[in-house]
């Protein structure tokens, strides 16, 4: 064919393809109301996300079942008046400590605010008080929950096809989600009763090298991880920092549950001497979920000066512009009224989570202690317990549990992206009363026992 | 070389590359505190974003200059007590109209909420009242400002390398930002005094087809666009809808300034009969910037049932989980206390913006009316006026204006991603008093006149 002929055929092909696409887009009335999910971003059809959606639908279907599934904070101390009290406390702080006149106070809450947030200094005080972390306020980016912080860090680090993220398996679904949104492959690192395994991390780094991949970071939850409930001991924390430093990778430390333990080990960030750790902070469990305020501490220096936090902030400006200063003010007020200590602010909640954990472990022992093949871990804090059973735990079993036994849990495979964990389930203890724990575990035992070999 | 030899050389190469990367990562003390922006996501070094950052720094440097640069809403009617009033109004609504008991009201504001938001029904009432848009509440996704809605729509639509977005040139920088975060190429469509040109849109669609690209959507601001201030007339709106429908592309309608005009033309969404329009809603100018609440109306049916809104919501769950219900409550309270009419709620502000626009146009006429080569458009609403001059308007000129004349504006090239608009500047009128307008335009004239040929 000559060139003009070739072009003609090519145009015809393009026109045909376009026509097919338009037909797919339109419905039989010629209305272009149909979109096909197959033509949308791959994250929407990823098994990890669709399975999570199915799970939520299933849980919604059985609202009267005892829910040992939801990882939400305890609600009995919620009081609507506290929102007003916290807002007032922050405004008073601006007037008294920051010497703002009324117009500036009002503008701070009403108007667009600075992208990095308006309460970084108060968050830094909280980190010093509760976590022994020395964070310069300019290294703090206030975000719409820790979830936005995760997205920003992954979006910043994923520059090209070579870039991968390491994370323990099983892992928090929010991390999986942020990775999907940024097209970041997540390579699993083995996780055991002591949390992420630094030796396997070394192996995975080597494997990535051999495959020409660039590992940008490793996500880790050293304290009472979601979903397993496990924590890392102190030597493992030091070893993990050593591995990160000597391999030039960042550690993304998620510490949403660190406060809720009987004994507290130092966070990675408080031990970090080499700028290896980006700290992902959440106020959802310790402040107020409805404020949707979290943050990142990113004090890494950029080669051209400035901080990694400023790079995150640049992307935040394109994503959410800034975190609502009203929402920030609510969290700030809570910090101000509790001498910057969320440990102090949550004294009652911590006691309840500790009690619920103990009651759950006791009830498991009474209900399932004699059953061969059934075991569970014994976290010393946090919201979660992992139960292992000698049969398959899938969403079908969950539906049976809900329908026939009136109890809900989370099949662990959801935290493996559907690629493992089929003999485990996650129990959440944060929202329950002693009576509900007793009854919930009894119902769970009634589900499990007939299925034992 | 035999195979094992080859593998050895390959490993050596990988080890060397890794070593170089680690050295780049570490500073001379062996501390891994240096990150290089060249190794991060490309958006961070995109000229559009770095120029916007430079612009903001420049503006911050001259806080006493008269700012005709900031697109922020008028502040004089802000009152901190309104936050409490609005929160109370929403809680009363939940008790009275939704029959919630106190525990459920409290949980609605304090706890994690549904991803799509808790005030979709009230937003639907507002859209019916102010925009004559008939939106089913389930088609509304409440977002962290319209910015998050833009990101979610682009992230959903950008499935692969072929997918491109069309947008008028010049365009809102937030759109450019959301496109950068999703690696979406933005193809410019010609824009004139009547807004985006539907004929050029047809040409661009043809061009995209020929290049094997898939145009997913066209972004458009039919009312008082940022940055130009221009609006589309009614025939162009109908023509644009026809083009979108017959080509099976979505229109992303941004209507942040629609309320602020002397005459109101129907929004694209209110004219949409084919499900071609995704409406991007902002409460930043009409509600309260500090709430950071916006929304998308995405009532397109998916081929497998469900709504496009549900796809956006899935991604939102991985990005920000949900929009703060406290922030949503503030906006809801304002809607409830104003019979769902933001036109009514903003009566005083609308009068001020209209006055400021008239005063600005009058002052331009007086100060620059006789100058050859100097012209400006005459928007009938919104926040912005475009001034055209016969010399180059770059950031250097802005700095001169700030330093020597004490006046700030926005060089238009920032809205072309630095690829055009070098003879125009954007004036913003929203934050000014009559005195500041008079003086600001006089200072602008003093900058411009000596530079005329």
Largest sheet of chain A: 7 strands, mixed
Structural class of chain A: alpha/beta
Low-confidence stretches of chain A: 26-33
CATH class assignment of the largest domain in chain A: Alpha Beta
Average pLDDT level of chain A: 92
Give me the side-by-side strand order of the main sheet of chain A.
Answer: 3-11-10-9-8-4-5
Which pair of protein chains has the largest interface, and what are the residue counts? A-B, 101 and 101 residues
The separation of the N and C termini of chain A measures 71 Å
Instruction: Output the CATH homologous superfamily of the largest domain in chain A.
Output: Type I PLP-dependent aspartate aminotransferase-like (Major domain)
Number of domains of chain A: 3
Name the CATH architecture of the largest domain in chain A.
3-Layer(aba) Sandwich
Shape of chain A: globular
Describe the structure.
The structure is a homodimer of 453-residue chains. The first copy, chain A, has helices spanning 3-25, 47-61, 81-96, 102-110, 120-131, 145-157, 173-181, 198-210, 234-247, 268-271, 308-319, 325-336, 342-345, 347-368, 395-405, 434-448; strands at 34-35, 66-67, 140-143, 163-168, 186-189, 191-192, 195-196, 214-220, 250-254, 277-282, 294-297, 301-302, 375-376, 384-388, 407-408, 410-411, 424-428. In chain A, the strands form four sheets. Chain A has a seven-stranded mixed sheet with strand order 3-11-10-9-8-4-5, with helices on both faces. A four-stranded antiparallel sheet of chain A has the order 13-14-17-16, covered by helices on one side. In chain A, a hairpin with a 2-residue loop joins strand 6 and strand 7 (195-196). In chain A, helix 6 crosses helix 7 (173-181) and helix 6 packs across helix 11 (308-319). The first copy, chain A, has three domains: 3-40; 47-70 and 346-451, Aspartate Aminotransferase, domain 1 (Alpha-Beta Complex), CATH 3.90.1150; 81-343, Type I PLP-dependent aspartate aminotransferase-like (Major domain) (Aspartate Aminotransferase, domain 2, 3-Layer(aba) Sandwich). Chain A has 16 helices and 17 strands. Chain A is α/β, with parallel strands linked by helices and 453 residues long. At the A-B interface, helix 1, strand 1, helix 3, helix 4 and helix 6 of A face helix 1, strand 1, helix 3, helix 4 and helix 6 of B. Chains A, B: This is Aminotransferase class I/classII large domain-containing protein. Chains A, B: GO terms for molecular function: pyridoxal phosphate binding; transaminase activity.
């Amino acid at each position: 064919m000559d060139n003009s002929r070739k072009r003609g055929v090519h145009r015809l092909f393009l026109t045909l393809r376009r026509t097919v696409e338009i037909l797919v887009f339109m419905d039989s009335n010629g209305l272009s109301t149909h979109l096909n999910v197959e033509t949308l971003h791959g994250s929407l059809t990823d098994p990890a996300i669709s399975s999570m959606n199915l799970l939520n639908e299933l849980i919604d279907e059985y609202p009267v079942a005892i829910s040992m599934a939801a990882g939400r904070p305890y609600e009995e101390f919620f009081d609507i008046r506290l929102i007003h009290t916290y807002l007032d406390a922050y405004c008073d702080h601006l007037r008294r400590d920051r010497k703002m006149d009324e117009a500036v106070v009002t503008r701070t809450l009403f108007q667009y605010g600075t992208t990095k947030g308006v309460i970084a200094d108060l968050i830094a005080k909280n980190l010093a008080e509760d976590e022994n972390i020395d964070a310069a306020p300019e290294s703090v980016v206030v975000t719409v929950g820790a979830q936005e912080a995760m997205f920003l860090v992954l979006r910043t680090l994923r520059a090209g096809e070579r870039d991968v993220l390491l994370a323990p398996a099983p892992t928090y679904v929010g991390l999986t989600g942020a990775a999907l949104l940024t097209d970041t492959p997540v390579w699993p690192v083995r996780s055991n009763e002591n949390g992420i395994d630094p030796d396997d991390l070394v192996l995975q780094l080597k494997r990535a090298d051999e495959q020409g991949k660039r590992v940008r970071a490793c996500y880790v939850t050293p304290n009472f991880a979601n979903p397993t409930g496990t924590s890392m001991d102190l030597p493992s924390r030091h070893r993990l920092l050593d591995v990160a430093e000597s391999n030039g990778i960042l550690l993304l430390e998620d510490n949403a549950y660190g406060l809720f333990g009987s004994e507290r080990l130092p966070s990675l960030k408080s031990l970090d001497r080499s700028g290896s750790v980006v700290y992902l902070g959440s106020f959802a469990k310790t402040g107020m979920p409805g404020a949707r305020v979290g943050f990142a501490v990113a004090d890494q220096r950029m080669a051209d000066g400035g901080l990694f936090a400023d790079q995150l902030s640049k992307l935040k400006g394109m994503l959410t512009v800034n975190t609502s200063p009203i929402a920030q003010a609510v969290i700030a007020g809570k910090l101000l009224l509790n001498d910057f200590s969320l440990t102090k602010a949550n004294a009652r909640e911590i006691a309840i989570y500790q009690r619920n954990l103990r009651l759950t472990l006791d009830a498991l022992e009474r209900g399932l202690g004699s059953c061969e093949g059934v075991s569970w871990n014994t976290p010393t804090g946090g919201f979660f317990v992992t139960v292992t059973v000698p049969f398959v735990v899938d969403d079908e079993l969950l539906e049976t549990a809900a329908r026939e036994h009136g109890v809900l849990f989370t099949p662990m495979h959801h935290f493996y992206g559907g690629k493992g964990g089929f003999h485990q389930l996650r129990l959440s203890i944060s929202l329950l009363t002693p009576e509900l724990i007793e009854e919930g575990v009894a119902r769970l035992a009634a589900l499990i026992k007939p299925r034992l070999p």
